[in-house]
Design brief:
This protein is of the alpha/beta class. It contains eight helices and five strands. α2 packs across α4. A five-stranded parallel beta sheet has the order 2-1-3-4-5, sandwiched between helices. It has one domain: 3-Layer(aba) Sandwich (Rossmann fold).
Length: 240
Amino acid sequence: MNTLLHLDASANRSGESITRALSARFAAAWLDANPTGTHRYRDLAADPVPALTTEFCAIGRRVEQHPPIGRLGVDALLESEDERADWRVTRALVDELVDADTVLLGCPMYNFSVPAALKGWIDRITFPGVYRAADGSALLAGTNVVVVAASGGGYGPGTPRAAWDFQAPYLRAWLTSIGVPDERIHVIRAELTLADLAPGLADLRPLATASFEAALASLDAVLPACVPAAMSAERTSPKE
């Protein structure tokens, strides 16, 4: 069964969020293309992932002292009921990610980076050794990730603030670090989303419209990579 893990991180839940609108559009198209698929949704702003704890840090430091032991191996290293309770939270989120065939991240740019809600999820699921199978292969080697990004200004190549983009480069670096191949990471961004609101950006409204339309087209273009027919032949990662 094909599974889509869909996460939204925008704090704006009023219906005006660009990333929520775009991620919902992709999820609807994915469901149309995958009528028997599973759509798992998390609103990280409405239901934040629990913050890291002393127990989380203790488990992580203990795991670091061993070769990659996978998710199952962590259980043997737990030393208290508090650690077991904390690991259950982490394990459920890690399992959800590993079980997904496609991951959809709705991620606006906040202060040149990702929202705290998304960073909290990243911190909680980034755990040593859990994304490797027993034979050492990457569990996420066959996972597609679609990052739906939005920014109030422009950060593309050649723009004055291109070097201020700590959103897309950060997400790409993190995803590759846990085993997602770079070619399976699809970053789709709508820029200049504040042009309709900020008087100082009024002359950029045509560019904002073009950026949004390009994002819609890019979502349509990437969808075929995330449907079962394409993935059944390409998926190379064993599941633990």
